[in-house]
Automatic annotation (TrEMBL):
Organism of this sequence: Cryptosporangium phraense
Span of domain ABC transporter: 7-251
Gene3D superfamilies: P-loop containing nucleotide triphosphate hydrolases
Keyword Nucleotide-binding included in the entry's annotation: yes
GO molecular function, one term: ATP hydrolysis activity
Cross-referenced InterPro entries: AAA+_ATPase, ABC_carbohydrate_import_ATPase, ABC_transporter-like_ATP-bd, ABC_transporter-like_CS, P-loop_NTPase
Protein name as it appears in the record: Sugar ABC transporter ATP-binding protein
Length: 270
């Protein structure tokens, strides 16, 4: 028996006036998997992810978490349901230190009277937990949790954002183009973090234009085209060229399946 999806969407529709952002899209994310979402510009990737994370409300369709239907009125509702998102803009506070960024909006107060009456923050406790969160993801280049984020490289800032999302995401982690602005070495570090998150059992949705990265870490690949789901493939069932062909409309997933069947039939006849 296959496991139930952690996150599922059925028949999602979203329009912007006469522009159709989503046209009846289905999506399933299963426990412990990395699901990549790919598509050309205007395919509906961003609209789909915004609907799943509460930034947009779909006009029709349903979203379920662990089988229970949910209705997000905003990103805070999605976060409360266990969905954490790392947007391409990272949403870090450059002037604050690493620990403060990890606990941004979730600051911990000191125990007892110091926290309840004088409202003092537990800075040491947050720094210790931040160091543990980064260590758990295999990030050894950041040692000083009091270091301002504005002094970090792009890859290190991405690491802070991913660590924050992984630390608080209890159900789903969503990564929007996490390697888009990074070099080769820093991109490799982010991909290793994604694999580490998967090893901890936290399912991840990865939105990316980088096909080598998608095929390196994804378990399944959801392809968007013109507001619809063009198909779901795996790195084992299709090549990068075939994924791009489906994404651009050069072929359909049904064409590819029919071609494979023809090849098998021809081989048997021979």
């Amino acid at each position: 028996m296959s496991p139930e999806p952690v996150l599922s969407a059925r028949g999602l529709v979203k329009t912007f006036g006469r522009v159709i952002g989503l046209d009846g899209v289905d999506l399933d994310l299963y426990p412990g998997e990395v699901l990549a979402v790919i598509g050309d510009n205007g395919a509906g990737k961003s609209t789909l992810i915004k609907c799943l994370t509460g930034a947009l409300t779909p006009d029709a369709g349903e979203i379920r978490i662990d089988g229970d239907e949910v209705h997000f009125r905003g990103p805070l509702d999605a976060r409360a349901a266990g969905i954490e998102t790392v947007y391409q803009t990272l949403a870090v506070a450059p002037a604050l230190d690493i620990a403060s960024n990890l606990f941004l909006g979730r600051e911990r107060r000191r125990p007892g009277v110091l926290g309840s009456v004088f409202r003092m923050l537990d800075k040491k406790g947050m720094r210790d937990e931040a160091a543990t969160a980064l260590s758990d993801l295999g990030i050894g280049t950041l040692q000083n949790m009091a270091q301002p984020v504005e002094t970090l490289s792009g890859g290190q800032r991405q690491a802070v954002s991913v660590a924050r999302a992984a630390a608080f995401g209890s159900k789903v982690l969503v990564l929007d183009e996490p390697t888009a602005a990074l070099g080769v070495r820093e991109s490799g570090q982010v991909l290793r973090m994604i694999e580490e998150v998967r090893s901890r059992g936290l399912p991840t949705i990865l939105i990316s234009h980088n096909m080598p990265h998608v095929f390196e870490v994804a378990d399944r690949i959801h392809i968007q085209r013109l507001g619809r789901r063009a198909g779901v493939i795996t790195p084992q069932s299709h090549t990068m060229a075939e994924a791009v062909a489906i994404m651009t409309g050069a072929v359909t997933l049904e064409d590819r399946v029919a071609a494979v069947d023809d090849e098998d039939r021809t081989g048997h006849e021979r």
